[in-house]
Write a structure and sequence with these properties.
The structure holds 2 protein chains of 2 kinds. Chain A is of the alpha+beta class. In chain A, 20% of the residues lie in helices and 38% in strands. Chain A has 2 helices and 6 strands. In chain A, helix 1 runs antiparallel to helix 2. Chain A is globular, with a radius of gyration of 15 Å. By secondary structure, chain B is an alpha/beta fold. In chain B, 43% of the residues lie in helices and 11% in strands. The chains are: A alpha+beta, B alpha/beta. Chains A and B meet through helix 1, strand 4 and helix 2 of A and helix 1, helix 23 and helix 27 of B.
């Protein structure tokens, strides 16, 4: 469904170890993303068990979530890169449709 | 975007991902200005210690354990016993105990005995061979000499490119990155023709000038498909692990505002693979594909098979057995169970168990006695192993209580010293400081204006002097102009090491105006913490240590090491402060804890500090074991007499510790405290050499023990931490940093050629970021050999870190279970853990799989009075 005046885009969310944030960031930017959002201290439970949230004095040990929005034609290359990275690291990637009001910010 | 563009982008992103995967074989290398001890195998931490060790043997050709000769020499010195060895063999291969005894000329010999004899007398397999690059596997391969020439050429370009603050002229086009800058200048570089020939140079000219497409094209030319890319990158990075380590740091750790030039791993790889491809392209018209050999050169299995025969012969001989082939076959069958890596692992386990037995023997179960008297003063030191001796000697001198906490005192910040244009991080590298704290004059008007003016003038003069040194022709004039002064100063420093030359510019410590840390948030600046933040820091400091009783005077003592002519100086500073002096952190923490508003808020939260308690900052200079009180002007009059007593006693404690250290350092014991100012001294102090264990618990369990400066001590009171929050903080941060330090010393000792920085006397500082041996080549990683050994004799005992935690075992288990970093480090055998719920219980040993077993020493006759932790 297209909301009036909004532009369809793809949203990619990647959850990885905190120390992989710079790598994923570079993959995003390398694939042509114009920006991203990073959330540190992500907690939860999943395939590899429990993951504690934010730690007092270790910004790199917990999980982090990186979010970017790109035109749909950029999704394939970006996801291909992230999937290669995840061959050696645990993490997950979600791709979903989204809509934005300022497409020029994202392409 | 066209289909072609999409494909290019897609290849480029996948390439970047593979580059990142490959960098795990080299540890990030921090610039020397903030040397950080890291686990050289940290990128492989997802694997177990044994698997990671196997990887670096394969990719780096590294040694990951002492060689058998060294283990045997240690055994002869008593560092391990036969019982340790037997137990370690069974730990390495538990099923060995069920192997039937071997019939040997009418006797029965156990498989255990066969392995023991082999460990004690069998020959060692040849050192591992590292994997080679694709070019070296060609039918007409790149020779070792050619590969070395590529490395030297690459190193020279890297050195030119990375300069951060030294050269007066920067290399052009640095904004294009290493590969782009090189590609733009390569047509003018005659050395390139000598390296790759005219055809090779012409091939380079036709390649893309950006790293990703350039690397992709070179890989395609060599015929390396995508599935083999990561392995090829690892082999390439392993040729230059120093530069690769620096690039790894740049990729993943450099701060966003890092002022240095772009130096990504993909750039480094693009340059090296392009050079190698060009060399091959320069001498044949077609490369790649079928011309590759299929077998890797590294073949440890073949070398081991040959050694097995020799090992069998030695063991048969040691058994005094006849030439019966059946006996040899039986022995060989047992020894096959113990390939080279398992032999080394068994020896390592024996050494680690021996150390653990000695340490735990010193900490037997006992009924804790509650503290009833208020101490005259408390002193909180960094967990650094160098604090242990000072704490021990100070406690012996009076009614003092000491505690251990990470030396940044729980306050991550960027510190802007008075008159400094730069705010430096003061926090473990695991934490990104978000706040800046400025050092400000205590009162206005005062001498600060004239001080700052003098300082600016001095800085200008120093800058002009260095600029003249770095110029092309100006050094000649500089020598003429300043030689009359520099010559005598150099002579004085050489003949009289230890003489502190007086500063004539009025900017020395004596001329500094009284200052204070501006900890309160200020409007319109980014400096300072809000009240809520300050209160949170205060609460965290006190609760993490379990500090609920307070003396009238509490000294927060950071540490620093001031040495001259020492590129690795920051490696001796406080690791918890990111390789910087710890005094500023102590000042900030003291200011927060003395803040009346903070105390009001803490009281509302049930954490009341006595009104007569004052926190004072200090700094322990570890190279001289002197302690300096900081911000003395802020100390209320009623605390001054107590402060004087503490100062007197801590001075005595420092003197005693220096005498103790003098016994471990080579050279004149009388000069031990002046080694830092001797510019010819390659061992100003031992730093953290000898570190082996990390104790988390109340001081009462280690008080009065001589731990020989080998143990990190973190205060912790399990009773006051029912939800385990404090223990989780300790285990996920200070313990992790302790493991990095432990691993850095471990690997710098077992393979100084691969993981160490070589001989200090040959160090050539490069670009303000690292050192090389001589004028070209790779950056050196790790610790200089003078930091871990005297000649060929290691002074550091390479053991994996032993965490000794006094807390309920189920609490420890829950914390390990919910933190990946601990699951990896502890489950993978990087850290050993022992624990007990209270002081009255026996210790239990945790297996990597999570099983706790009550600890009993291997030797029955171990008692506290005959145990020492000194390295034999």
């Amino acid at each position: 469904m297209n909301w009036h005046g909004l532009t369809p885009m793809a949203k990619i969310e990647v959850i990885v170890d905190g120390d992989q944030v710079p790598v994923v960031r570079d993959l995003f930017l390398g694939a042509g993303a114009t920006g991203y959002t990073a959330l540190g201290g992500v907690s939860g439970f999943g395939h590899s068990g429990y993951h504690e949230g934010r730690l007092h004095f270790n910004d790199r040990a917990g999980l982090a979530m990186l979010i970017t929005v790109v035109p749909t034609e950029k999704v394939e290359s970006l996801v291909a890169g992230v999937r290669r990275l995840l061959e050696d690291h645990h993490g997950v990637v979600f791709v979903s449709e989204t809509q934005v009001s300022r497409p020029e910010y994202f392409s | 975007m066209s289909i072609l563009d999409h494909e290019t982008a897609s290849r480029s992103v996948s390439l970047l991902a593979d580059v990142s995967r490959a960098t795990d074989v080299v540890a990030p290398l921090w610039p020397l200005t903030g040397f950080v001890a890291v686990n050289p195998l940290g990128g492989l931490q997802r694997s177990s210690f044994d698997d990671a060790a196997r990887s670096v043997r394969r990719w780096l050709g590294a040694r990951t354990h002492l060689d058998l000769e060294a283990f045997r020499a240690d055994h002869a010195r008593g560092r391990t016993t036969d019982t340790d060895l037997r137990r370690a063999i069974l730990t390495s291969d538990p099923s060995l105990g069920s192997v039937p005894d071997l019939p040997v000329d009418g006797r029965a010999v156990t498989a255990l005995e066969v392995v023991r004899l082999d460990l004690l007398h069998g020959p060692q397999a040849p050192a591992p061979q590292r994997e080679v690059t694709a070019g070296q596997r060609l039918a007409v391969p790149v020779t070792d000499a050619e590969a070395a020439a590529i490395d030297a050429y690459l190193g020279a370009w890297c050195a030119v490119h990375v300069d951060e603050a030294v050269a007066a002229w920067h290399a052009p086009d640095r904004e294009r990155g290493l590969f782009g800058a090189w590609h733009a200048l390569a047509p003018h570089d005659r050395r390139l023709t000598r390296l790759v020939g005219r055809r090779g140079r012409a091939w380079i000219a036709g390649q893309p000038g950006r790293a990703e497409p350039g690397l992709d094209r070179a890989l395609q030319t060599l015929g390396i498909d995508d599935d083999r890319r990561v392995d090829e990158f690892r082999a390439q990075l392993a040729r230059v692990p120093g530069w690769a380590g620096y690039a790894h740091w740049y990729d993943e750790w450099a701060p966003a505002d890092h002022p240095g030039p772009v130096f990504r791993s993909v750039e480094l790889l693009a340059l090296r693979v392009t050079l190698e491809t060009a060399l091959v392209a320069g001498r044949c018209s077609r490369v790649g594909g079928a011309s590759f050999r299929t077998q890797p050169v590294a073949d440890d299995a073949r070398a081991e098979a040959q050694t097995l025969e020799a090992r069998t012969t030695v063991v048969v001989d040691r058994l005094g057995a006849s030439d019966d082939l059946r006996i040899a076959a039986d022995v060989r069958q047992v020894l096959e169970r113990f390939p080279e890596h398992r032999r080394a692992a068994a020896w390592l386990t024996a050494q680690e168990d021996n150390f653990r037995d000695r340490l735990l023997t010193l900490m037997p179960p006992r009924v804790p006695t509650p503290d009833t008297e208020r101490p005259a003063a408390q002193a909180v030191f960094c967990i650094d192993v160098r604090s242990e001796g000072l704490r021990r000697h100070l406690e012996a001198l009076g009614p003092y209580q000491t505690l251990g906490f990470a030396g940044f005192f729980g306050v991550p910040m960027r510190w802007r010293a008075l008159g400094s244009a730069v705010a430096e991080a003061r926090a473990p590298v695991l934490v990104v400081p978000r706040h800046e704290i400025a050092e400000r004059p205590q009162a206005e008007p005062d001498g600060s204006s004239s001080y700052l003016a003098r300082r600016r003038a001095t800085n200008g003069a120093v800058e002009a002097f260095h600029a003249a040194k770095r110029g092309v022709g100006s050094p000649f004039a500089l020598a003429e102009a300043s030689g009359w002064l520099a010559g005598p100063v150099a002579l004085l420093r050489t003949l009289g090491p230890g003489i502190r030359l007086p500063g004539a510019d009025g900017t020395g410590p004596a001329n500094r105006p009284p200052t204070a840390a501006a900890v309160r948030a200020e409007q319109d600046t980014r400096s300072g913490f809000s009240l809520e933040e300050r209160a949170l820091f205060a609460e965290t400091i006190l609760q993490t240590m379990g500090m609920h009783h307070f003396a009238p005077l509490v000294v927060l003592c950071g540490h620093a090491s001031r040495t001259v002519n020492n590129p690795h100086a920051s490696s001796l500073d406080c690791g918890a402060c990111g390789g910087a002096p710890g005094g500023a952190s102590a000042r900030v923490a003291a200011a927060i804890l003395n803040d009346p508003e903070v105390r009001d808020l803490l009281r509302e939260r049930g954490l009341a500090l006595p009104e007569d308690t004052w926190f004072v900052a200090a700094e322990h200079e570890t190279v001289s074991d002197t302690v300096t009180i900081l911000d003395r002007e802020l100390v209320p009059d009623e605390h001054l007499s107590a402060l004087s007593r503490v100062e007197h006693d801590v001075a005595t404690a420092g003197r005693r510790l220096a005498e103790e250290r003098a016994r471990r350092l080579p050279g004149d014991p009388a000069k031990v405290r002046r080694r830092g100012s001797d510019w010819a001294q390659v061992r100003p102090e031992w730093g953290l050499a000898g570190n082996a264990a990390f104790v988390v618990g109340p001081r009462s369990i280690t008080a009065e023990l001589d731990l020989a400066s080998r143990v990190f001590l973190h205060s912790y009171e399990a009773e006051g931490d029912p939800d385990g929050a404090a223990l989780e903080t300790i285990m996920t941060a200070p313990l992790v940093v302790g493991q990095w330090i432990s691993a850095q010393y471990y690997f710098s000792t077992v393979d100084p050629d691969t993981f160490g920085a070589g001989d200090k006397t040959l160090h050539n500082p490069i670009g303000g970021i690292g050192v090389m041996l001589g004028e070209s080549g790779d950056l050196e990683v790790g610790l200089p050999m003078q930091s871990v050994a005297v000649g060929s004799r290691p002074v550091h005992e390479p053991l994996r870190l032993l965490a000794v935690i006094q807390a309920p075992l189920d609490r420890i288990e829950v914390i390990i279970g919910r933190n990946d970093v601990l699951r990896e480090l502890i489950g993978g055998g990087w850290i050993h853990v022992v624990g007990r719920s209270s002081a009255s219980e026996r210790w239990s040993v945790r297996s990597p799989g999570g099983t706790w077993t009550t600890w009993w020493p291997a030797e029955d006759d171990l008692v506290p009075t005959n145990v020492t932790l000194e390295v034999p």
